[in-house]
From TrEMBL:
Family (UniProt): Belongs to the adenylate kinase family.
Family annotation (Gene3D superfamilies): P-loop containing nucleotide triphosphate hydrolases (3.40.50.300)
Superkingdom classification of source: Eukaryota
Entry protein name: Adenylate kinase 3
Matching Pfam families: ADK (PF00406), ADK_lid (PF05191)
UniProt source species: Pedionomus torquatus (Plains-wanderer)
Residues spanning the membrane: none
Known catalytic reactions: GTP + AMP = GDP + ADP
Sequence ranges assigned to domain Adenylate kinase active site lid in this UniProt record: 78-113
Amino acid sequence: EVGILAKSYIDQGRLIPDDIMTRLMLSELKGLDRYNWLLDGFPRTVVQAEALDRACQIDTVIDLDVPFETIKSRLTARWIHPASGRVYNLEFSPPKAQGIDDITGEPLVQRDDDKPETVTKRLQAYDAQTKPVLEYYREKGLLKSFSGTETNKIWPHIYAFLQTKLPEVSQKDAATPR
């Protein structure tokens, strides 16, 4: 029910209100206190950050500083095959035939939230709401920023940083609660 409500905001190019997003996220985080975990895209507002801080101890916040034009280009180039969920990107992994799923030959569609006008609205709202969050965590000494436009150039720096934050664990141990 809450997910359907959240989707209605996304489809309109709006960010999900704090109370709905916080309720969704904090319910998912319950019981994970024995694990290391990484959140992607939450919190996006100071209100969400404060709620997260009351519920959990945060030790690092990573900011991926990527130009909006790069993000917009990647998102608007994304097309999907609705029946299977297969994702194509016209720049990085295009279908063999334009607009057609490689396996079924059925038409591909662009999600409403990947259309240029919706992406632009979402990025503008995201920028306005998240700048204060970055400052909130910068003031707490928890923020580490990485800038760039290409994953393969940014990732090695992020990975090296995370190695300084996370205890050495094997893949098997990573799946076991501590």
